[in-house]
Amino acid sequence: MNLHPVKSSQIKEVGYDQVNSTIHILFKYKNKMFLYYPFTLDQYTEFLNSESIGKYFHKNIRKHVVIEDEVKTCHRCEEEYYEELMHPASVDEMWFCNTCNQVLSN
Asked: Do 53 and 18 share a structural domain?
């Protein structure tokens, strides 16, 4: 899942996860990511093509189930990742950066 920059005063980037039917929205304020579901790909496309991303969000997305996702930063390559963009190394909850494979947390 890739995030795409959008023109909005409050929203920085958006993305869509087809497997989980989830819209990912990165807000400019405090660089926080929120995940909203359930949404179809057609609804996500409508959101991207709307006249106003912010107005569409407030009217059609904000009321849906939301999960807040924290940003983690790789100390080696300085890439920022959200937990769902990292991969688990084992059942011990050790996480690795997808870019350089640095251990991020355990």
From this structure: yes
pLDDT tens by residue, 3-49: 999 999 999 999 998 988 889 998 888 788 888 888 999 999 999 99
8 shares its domain with 51: yes
Query: Cα angle at 8 between 37 and 40, to 5 degrees?
Result: 25
Say how far residue 99 (Cα) sits from the centre of its chain: 17
State the total domains in the chain: 2
Confirm if 72 and 83 have CB atoms less than 8 A apart. yes
- Closest listed residue to residue 71, CA positions, set 30, 101, 12, 99: 30
Residue 89's domain spans which residues? 72-105
Rounded to whole angstroms, the Cα distance separating 102 from 84 reads 16
One domain for residues 78 and 53 = no
Pick 55 or 103 by higher pLDDT: 55
What predicted TM-score, i.e. pTM, was given to this entire model? 0.65
